[in-house]
Amino acid sequence: MKMNRKQVRNRTLLLSVSLLAGMAIGLWMNERMPERQNLPAAAKAADEPDGASRAAGAGAADMRHEHAHDDAADMDMDMSGMAPGAEGADAATWTWPDGAPRAGEASTLRVTITDAAGKPDAGLQVNHEKKLHLIVVSQGLSTFLHLHPAETAEPGVFEGDVTFPSAGRYKLIADFKPADGAQQWRGAWVQAEGGGGTRQTEPALAADKRLERTADGVAVKLSFDRAPKAGEAVKLAFSFADAASGEPVRDLQPYLGAAGHVVILGADADDYLHVHAMSAAGGPVAEFHATFPKPGLYKLWGQFQRNGRVMTVPFVVEAA
Questions:
Q1: Residue 65, in any domain of the structure
Q2: Last residue of a domain, which of 60, 90, 108?
């Protein structure tokens, strides 16, 4: 179809306007690109829902949940406790270089404390004379060990021997202090086999009717300033007297930089506290502050040193 001059002019004008509009849109989009490039990573991830970002979120949730496996080679992390599941918090891996542990035999345990990047944490602080405190308890809490694996040539990696007294299931707890100063703990369950097939038989946990014990010739009494109640701070007082004469004991010695240590575990070993004496006095009383996180039974172990010997006194209490 043949167009007249007016139609040709109109069509040319329309094409020119379209071309100018396209150029303007292109310039506007180029100006917006730096803003998109400068977005924080979190904002980019929000509008890029790929599988990697979803998997990372799922992994963080899984780390806060404990799975209790009996396989010593597959010990899942328990992230509850001090600084539980905090973003950027350190983690721990547990390996047995010489094979799975057997009861009654010294088994080498390697504990690696890793930072947020997954690398061994070279910035761990000395906390009460040690960078790593290793607590070992049996499932029924009748066995208690407080060990200190040595740091290897690689910072953040520790090794030490553990001897499980009998076959059974044990909780391992790594207590440490990263560079940020926040005390943390990480735990794992392990199954110890062997010992001629003997398995540990543990009595059911029950609150003590009398909070009194005798250890190394010292009579130890535990008291509270008020009945323990979940979520509320309570003061624990250990008093010491000579078991034979009844005279107050005043010659306790510092142990790991404190007049005393108290480790507290819930009946299921999911809740862990490690507190230290409020003063450096050598007796006859050592006081501590603690807050029981939830109602239920707790077993606590007080550790004190006298004449170069560490005495451990256990008690079972209930928090309302």
A1: no
A2: 60
**CA neighbor of 105 nearest in space, from 188, 171, 192:** 192
Residue-wise pLDDT tens digits, 24-62: 444 444 444 333 333 333 332 222 222 222 222 333 322
pLDDT of residue 109: 98
Per DSSP bridges, beta strands 184-194 and 102-103 are parallel
Indicate whether 19 belongs to any domain. yes
CATH code for the domain of 97: 2.60.40.1930
Which residues in the chain show pLDDT less than 50? 1-3, 5-6, 8-9, 12-15, 17, 19-21, 23-88
Burial 69-108 (b: 16+ CB within 10 A, else e): eeebeebbbbbbbbbeeeeebbbbbbebeeeebbbbeebe
Longest Cα pair distance anywhere in the chain, in angstroms? 127
CA 83 to the chain's CA centroid: 7
Rounded CA separation 154/151 (Å): 7
Six-digit token string for 31:
């100006």
* Terminal Cα-to-Cα distance of the chain (whole angstroms): 96
Q: Which of 297, 163, 185, 275 is nearest to 230 (CA)?
A: 297
User: What's the CA gap between 283 and 304, in Å, rounded?
Assistant: 10
- pLDDT value of residue 116: 86
Q: Do 43 and 9 share a structural domain?
A: yes
pLDDT (0 to 100) of residue 281: 87
How far apart are alpha carbons 108 and 121 in whole angstroms? 21
The 10 Å CB-count burial string (b at 16+, else e) for 17-34 is eeeeeeeeeeeeeeeeee
Domain end position, chosen among 154, 169, 197: 197
Model confidence pLDDT, tens digit, residues 180-221: 778 899 999 999 988 655 566 788 999 999 999 999 999 999
CA distance 203 to 8: 102
Which range of residues forms the domain containing residue 250? Answer: 212-319
